[in-house]
Each structure stands twice: as C-alpha cells, then as structure tokens.
Records
---
Amino acid sequence: MRRMKMSDFFKSAKFITTEFENYFSSKNSPWGQKKPRLYQHTDLIAWKGLPMFTTDFEVDSTDGAKLIFTSLGCVDIYINGKRLEGAEMMPGWSSYDKRTLYMERDIEDMLTVGKNRILAVVSSGWYTGRIAGERYGEEPPAVMLSIVSGGKVIVSTDESWKCTVGGQIKTADIWDGEYRNGGETGYDEISKPCFELDEDWENADVFNYGGEVTPFIGSEVKVRDALALKPQKITVSDGIVYNGSHYGKINVCEDNASLPVTMKIGQKITVDIGQETVGWLKIKVKAKKGTEIKMRYAEFLNDSGDMNRGNDGPEGSVYTINLRSALGKAYYVTGSDEAEIYRPVFTFFGYRYVELSADNEVEFIDMTAEIVGNDNIETGKIDTSNALVNKLFSNALWGQRSNYLSVPTDCPQRDERLGWTGDAQAFSVTAAYNANVYGFFRKWMQDMRDSQSESGGYADVNPRVGCCSSEDACAWGDAGVIIPYNLYKIYGDDTMIKEHFDSMDKYLTGLVSKYGYSGPIPRYGDWLAYDWCDNKFISSAYFVHDIDMMLEMCTVAGREDKIDYYKDMREKAYEFYCDNFMKDGVPVEQTQCNKIIALAFGLLSKEKEPEVADALAQQIKDNGDRLSCGFLRTYN
C-alpha cells in the first residue's frame, strides 16, 4: 500500500462532534479561587455519559488496512467488538489552539471482508476537562479519522456518522476520575455491526477546527506491563474506634489479607501497593449485579487521626486533602452476578494506596496496579552496596516514570499535573541517563513552540492552560533553550536543535528587547532553597549561560550567521552580571547557590575557580555535609 499523504487523508475527513454537557467543566478550575467547587470527599456522579460516534462500512479486502485518527480530547476506539489496544489517553496532550496530533494503526486483523463497524468514544481529556481551565474554549470533544486500504480512503468522519451521548462511562475527568456502569451496553457490543442503534443516535455535527493536524511524534502513553505491581498489604476494616484523636482510627478486622478477599457490607479495604506510582488499580470482582464499588486513590495514610497534624480522617485511612480539589476516584457498578474486570480508561491517578468500599458484599478475586506513562525505553541503572543510595535512585526513577505522561509534569496526583518547565529542565539530564527521552522531549519542544508568545516568551507551563501562563521566568522559560542543548550533549542528535533554533532565537532576542541584558524575569529563583539567593543574580547568570549554549548551538544548527550576534549579546550580558553581582572576581553574595552557579556556568576566571570551589566545599562541610540550595542548583 502506498503511504497516504496528509492531503489524501484529510480530503474527505472532518472533525465531528455533538452537543455535550460536561459535568466536570473547565470553568471549575480551582486556580485563583478561595473555595473550589469540588472537594476530595465529594462523590462522583453518574452523569449522562460521553460522546460516541459510529458508522458502518464495507471492505472487499482487509490487506494493509490502516486507521488514521486524531481527536480534541482523548479517544477510545472499537472496531467489530474489539478495542484498539496499544496506547492510552490517545492522542495525548498538545497545544490545542495550535495543533492536535494524528496517530496511525494497522487494523487488518480487526476488519472482516464485508460489513464492519467502528465506534469512537471521546472524553474531554486535556482539551476541555478541568485541567484546561478554559484555555481552549468550551467546545465539546471531537474526533476525526479515516480508514485507508489499497491506496484509497474507505471511510472518513463526516456528518453522516451517527452519534449520541451515553455509554458505560458516565463521567470522566483527568483530575477527578471516572464513573463506569458495567450494567449498560458495552462499547464492544455497540461496535458490532449486528447491534441496532436506537432513536437516540443522530447525525453528527461538523466542527471547523482552526489548528494544524500533524503526525504524532515521540513515545506513546501506554500501560507498562513489565512494571505492574501486586498489592503488598491488604487491610480489611469495619468502622472506627476511639484513640483519643479527633477522627479516631480504623477498626482493623484483618491486617494482612490475601487474595481473594471478601469485603462485607459496611467494611472497607485499604490496598497498599508498596510504591508511589501512576496509573490505576485493575480489579477482578464478583458481586451482585448493580453493586457500586468506590475506589479512592491516595499517596499516604492518616498517621494518627489528629487534626492538628493535618490528618483528614481516622488513623489508617487514606489521606487525600493534599489532592486539593481533585477527587481522585473511580467508581464501578457491576453489570452481572459473575466475575468482572474493571480498570479506568480516561483518567489516571498518582497513588500508593487505594480505599475500596461498596454497597453490597464484594469478592475481590485479583488486583493489579497497572503503571501508565510514556513508554520511554529505560537505559540507566545503578546498583550499589548501600541500600539508601539504591532507594534514592529508585525513587528518582519512579518519579520519572510517574511524571512523564504525555508531557513532563510537576506532580501526577492533585489538581495540577501541568508541564512545568523549570522542573523539566532541572531533571532533563538525569532523565536522559535513565531512559531514552529524546522523542518525548522533541514532542514537548513542539508544544513549547506552539505556546510561545509573539514577543518570544515561553510560559511557565507548557502546553499553556488557564493558569500559570506567565512567561519569561528565569530557569523556567529558559527550558526552551536548556533542554535541546542538554539532550544534544547526551544523545548527539541535532534534530531538535535544528527544529527549535528559530524559536530559541526568538526567545533570547525577545528577552533583550523587553529587559535589556539583565536576563529573564527573576520570578521563582532557586525553588525550595533553604538559603535565600538573590533571584536577580540567578536570572543574570542564567542569561549568560543561555547565550553560551546558544553560541554552541549556532554551529550545530549550521547557523554560523548568528555567531557574531550572540557574541555581542554575551559580552553585554556578562558585563551586566559582573557589574551587579561580582566583586574582586567572586560573587558578592556567598550562599551555596551563588558559588555553585558561578562554577557550573563558567562565570569565574580560571584563577578564581579553585578559591570558590574550596570555599563551597567548606561551606557544605560546615552545614553538616548538607546542601542548602534548591533544585536549580542541586542538579549541577
């Protein structure tokens, strides 16, 4: 089969949508509000369902058949009773006001000669879920796809497709979770040609999308089967007993239960998977049809029941107040009296513990913590004779696995999960040693270009959302320069630098036009530092460092025409740095941060480097052999 060109694919395909009232609206963002509407103790609601789109089509041959698809929101696809496997939260997060990404799949084995049916279920995802904060408007989710075979388009989305709002998944949101009713007709059944659509199915509406649709790049979000975990501890409890605290403690019935385990009416089960991670708990259960099973995800357990310690419930119960307004829950209603398997589809959780409860007796036959994230091939490993060092490395690796999900996030559990740029650049070298993250970051640099302002600014988070979209922050906006440079030094691949060069040039030129040679805005400084270091010093030093990296990248990108320009910029930026923050060849301020930055960025003369390095070593020793700087300096 000849490869279809984009022009062929989209010649007939259209984005289709339908009216949809999103229960978890992007208007309900907690940012900037004193009292968010949603709290962690609020129940999930069985709302109206999600947009579903379907059509029937015929094929004479299945040879070489491909599905090419994209969506505004996250899409799950079924063909002839089979789910399209291989990736989750498709097609991932992009700057929807500028682009969405299309994916390709071989579907030869999913089709049959003759009549076929395809079904697409679309959630709001990153597009118009609460995480978006109205950044991309209030339009309902949409999907566009084509099936191609034999060098021609077999079927494409248009207004002839049938659609409705409904299905098993009643509500879904990245922050808040998912409610699924297994008693309703499954998507696999609806996607079979023999299933009769009722009068609720109407013709789809066409949505005129103003952004680009471009090929997916980088690694995909997947269930990483090799990392799956089993419960390390299962605790069965029944009510609360008094322990002298505000909330009391859970009344433990069985402290180390093994699977299968039965949870009686009124009891709760707390599952400890033994590792902070991201994804969901897949459960195999048997209960009376219509039983509602509730799952609350948490990172910690309440340690005392004492409100003065910040506990939000009885000792031994899941602690969830740190989720802020994110509900972090999954509810499932059983569809039969037989054994069933449930796992979420359109959400994910950052957790170690799961609290299970139900309105009927439930037998939990099996449980598996499925790890979800970008499938970056892991390449780095450290194994030492020191258990604490090994645990430190393990924690860093699990942190990377948990926060690299479509974009590099700051946290995977609460009402944030955003692509914070400062966090990402600070960890980028470590990440590159741990795994092959080149494609992952190449995609994210595309997001940064799409989010870049006309004046050249990179936002604090990328893709931009309804909050945290200030720009030009030192060490945060600088990620648009630092990450391409770091990954080139690690991998030796110049693709990202060449693709991103004009954007970096626009950013640095914009800084000069807006702020002179003082550098980017000193907004956050050395985040989480014990000792305060002048943010303006950090900003000035980072600006000189940016230019030094850019000078090297001019040659890599074949842009020698810009070298003199950046040499002049570097001279003026360094002059500003020395005039304002140096005396007698060393930093005026004498915190660990000042010394580390000056040494790491090569801002000292060769004669002064040993003096400053010795002073830093002594300073760390005098501090009990401890660093006192934040994460901007800890990674150097």
---
Amino acid sequence: MGGGCPTGPSGSQPHPDQVVVALLQQAYPALVAGYGAAERQARAMALGKLWVALSRERIGGLVPLSCDGRTVLRLPDGTRISAPPAIADAFAQRREGLAVTVHAAHPQVIDHPVGLLEAILAGRPQGADTGGWRQLSAELGESVANHALALVAESWRRERLRAAAHDSGNLEASTLRWAARRAATDPGFSPLALFEQSVVDGHPLHPCARVRGGMTLEELCAYAPEWAGEVAIRIVAIARSSFAHPPSARHRMRELLSSEHPGAVAAADTHLRGVRRDPADYDLLPVHPWQLPRLAQVCSTAGAVIAIPGAWIPARPLLSLRTLAPRTDRRAAHLKTAVDIRLTTAIRVVSPATLYNGPLISTLLAEISRRERGFGGRFVSLTELAGGSYQPGPGGPVEATARLAAIARESPECHAGGGEVALPVAALAARSPLSGRPLLAEVLDQLASELRASRAEAAARFLAGYCECALPALFALLSRWGVALEAHGQNAVVVLREGWPVRLLYRDFGSIRVSPARLSRAGLAPPVVRGALPTDDEDELRAGLFFPLIGTNLGQVLSTLAREGEADAGALWELVAQRCHSVYATLTADPAIATQAGRDEQALFAPALRSKSMLRVHMSADPHTPQWVGVPNPLRAAAG
C-alpha cells in the first residue's frame, strides 16, 4: 500500500482502510465522508465473490451444502458457515450489510471477506499449510480497500460529469445518447474511454478483483482509470540493433507513431540529435509512465535505450489500466504497455510470444473473415498493427524484454459509425457515469419506450440481438476454423445504435487458442505461433471459448437484463439456448465440419461447464497456467 502513512501498534502494518483514509484526508479531504459507505459496499461485493469461488473450487476440503433455506460451507472440522441463498448467484447485486454466520459454540456474524478466510483457516487441520491462504487474505484486504477507493472516485467523477453536462445544457436520461451526440461534434471525445472507466468493480468473479500489486495508493490515484482522466505516455528510443519487431506486423512502431503522433516523434528525434545520436538508428516505443522509472537500469543516454524527457502522448487509461487510448483522436491506435503490476492473478508484462503472435493472428482472422463474408458485418476482430520490445545484448537483463514492450492495436472506435457507440461488454452491467444506474437499465428504458413493450420484452429483444452479433461468428471460428477467442466482458466490445447491438468487436489475442488440425482441415495453413496458443486438445479449445462467453460475458449480461428488466432468468437462458442450437444447426449442416461441430455443440450443452479457477490460480506459483473446475451449465438447464 501507499508509503508515508502511520503504522499500527508496535510498528505493524496499518489496516488498508487506515491507509486509504489517510490518503483521502491529505489529497481529497472532501471525499473522506463517502469512504465508509463505499468500503461497506466493496466489502459486500468481495464477500459474495469469495463465497462463490470457495463453493465452486472446494479448496482445502470445503463442501458446499444447502440447509434450512440457507447456503452452507462445511469446513474440514465440521464447522458450518451459512449465508443467504442469493450469495451463491455469481452475478447477484450485492449490497452493504451482506453477512455470513459461523455456527460454532459462539456463533459469529461476518461481513468482511478477510473474516470469512480467517474462519476457514481456524477450521483447517493442525499442521496444514496456510501460507497461500495468508497471502490471499492480505490481498483481499487490499483489494477491498482499493475497490472502496474506486467507488469514491466513481461518485466524484459522476458529480463532475453531471455538472458539466448540465452546464452545457446536454444532460439527458440516456447516457448513450448523450455520449453519441457529444462524439459527433468532438473527435477527441471517446465514448469508449468514458464507459471503460465506468467499470470500477473489476473482474465479475475474482474475489481480489481490485488487486494492484506494486502500486501505492498515490499511484492508483495518478494512473487508475477511475481516477486519472488522462496520463502522459512516455517515449523511449531503442537502438535498432536492440529492438525486437514482430516480422509480420503491418507497421513498425516508429512508423505508426510518426503517422498518429508526429509531435512526440519530432520531440524524440530532437532529443536524440541533442545527445549526438542519429534518429534513423533508433526505433521508438511507448512506455507507461508508471513503468518508466522502474526501467532506470536499462535506460541511459549512452546506452541502447534512451528515455526521452520531452516526448509524450496524452492518453486515457482504459479498463485494463495498462492499455491507453490517445486523447487527441479516438480512432488512433490503442497502446498496450507493459507494467510490473499484479492485476488480479498475474504481473502484466508483454511476453515475447504475445508480441510475436499478435500480427500473425490478426492476419489469420482477417482471412477467415474474408472467407466468412465478413460475418455479415456483425463481427470484427481488431488488428494488432505494430509492436516492439527491447532485446538486451549478452549479459543484459533478460527480463527487460517483457518489461519494456508495447503493442499498438486498432481502436474499436474505428468501427463505430455515426450515432453508434462502442463500449466493452462489461460496461453494460456497470453503473452509468451519468445516472449511476446500471447502463442496461437505461437501455431498457429506451427500448421499452421505442417498442411500446414491457421491460421484460425489451430485455429479451436486446439479448436476442446481442446473440446475433456474438454467437454465429464465435461458434464458426471455433467449429469450422479451430479458433477459440477469449470473449469475456473486457475483450469483447459491443457497438450499440440507439441502444440496439449491431456488431461485436474482439480484442487481445494473448489467451486465445488455435487448433492447427482444424485450420488445416478447413484449408488454411496454420500460422507458426509461439507459446501455449496452439492446441489440438478439444477440451482445452472449447473451454477457451465457452467459459469466457457463457460463464462471464453472457452470464453477466443476462443476469443484469433479468434484474433490470424484471424478466425471468430461466426464460432468457432458454432464448440463448435456442440461438445456440440455431447456429449449430447451420454448422452441422456442413458435411466438412459436421462431426467436430456436433461434438462442440454437445460439449456446449454438457451438464457442467468448465470454469476457470480464480483462487487456485491466484495462490499458485504459475498464475499464467489456467486451472479448471466444473460448474452447473445454465444452457443445460435451459435446454431441458
């Protein structure tokens, strides 16, 4: 946590809440009053996520049960912890006051996730290893405090945004309409960035959704998307002999930066000439401003890497924190940077394999799209245009390759036309940056009025339209071509026109899977990619799509539609199941892929859905290797 704050008794580390309050008192005293309610809300949300993860993963001998109208976790020593049944709903709207009860000689009511972990630890056998649990407990405490701080920032930003909209005479009930109208007159305004920054609750399933390991609270306020409206991307010059460039990329990084940010490149070249270096001998790389000071050992005016003091690109931090959208033009390429920060489970550097594979996968998906006739204009994969990293010489710091690297990716707003708004799917369930209501609640108001129908009917119509954008393309990519995209709510971007879904965009190829065998059978030469991306394991391939699509993306959208549209969730899942069967009826009608498409459809409707572990991976030594658990499949129940 942040430095310079008072410690607890005997020099112990202060409680995370004390650190946050100390920061607010110093930097934002007017916001201190709102922290208590924000912390209670963050506590409830993390408690619910932790309960779901513990119930699903059954770590350390935990057994989920149901008893007397309560959901229960039985500990190895027989102790039972009970909670209201709604806590087991992965996407329930959890409010402050949520609590669980430890049934022991002296019953205990717990409303903090750290307290739940402490109760579980007390019930573990003597001598059992508790190191991973203790680490998880510490990170949970920090995550709750960080989330509370984000909620405070969210409220503050909403107040300022509403005031600005009111002063300009543009305040209206629909945030989407307000954003589309503003974008029509201001090319620098980005509706996408606005909605990315509104997703302050983090990963919908991970209990440590707001872990920012390595950042102080002061740095969170400077760089996190909920606080920082703008950051300055820094530029470093790297000698061409020490610069790794993806050979299949459409552009070199210097070329792309020269086209889109000529002022920053001119400043870099001026500096290089001032230190008697020829700019033609150097490539340029964007670096996150948080990361640059941590690269001092590889940067020097006399070395292969030179930090440029007077060159920067003003940008907005997006949902992932490390991906940044240039401010001057919303259609400029987004810049994905490396940061030595632990976000949920992993340190977010840019691996050499990710850098190398991206342009190859971009080319592959462009060719598949051509053969699929553009998926009817309903689906677009965003191209990774350029990339680069530092390649140290013999004896140099090998780890610097991933720590000093960046990718330039096509902006989703290149695919949003007049009157259209692109936003991450996760933002649909998030609170509107203007009204504070879930964005889908505003959408249903608009659609129900337009259709002269109930909100439940509007919810079903919206979901049907969303499925038409997502399912045909994603299932064809898997079952015909062997490409499993990780289409969760951060990677998937939906384009709305007057509230209706019109297309789905996909970004980020880091965790996708590609089957060389399926590609070959479809008549395409498999690209020679690196790392864990290629696989012919059908279970791994299907899980790579089905969990993020069904278990997070559709699960969160559907749950929000059911709640805000006062619709029956079971009926909405039936609608999704019908759309899935309809898509697969077309795919299995193709004799060339009928068998493998049939196997995929069967797996899609299996009793259990392979779900990515949150806690096991979080506590493992290798957080980049997924671990799986089986969870009840809502499609199986919907299909009867």
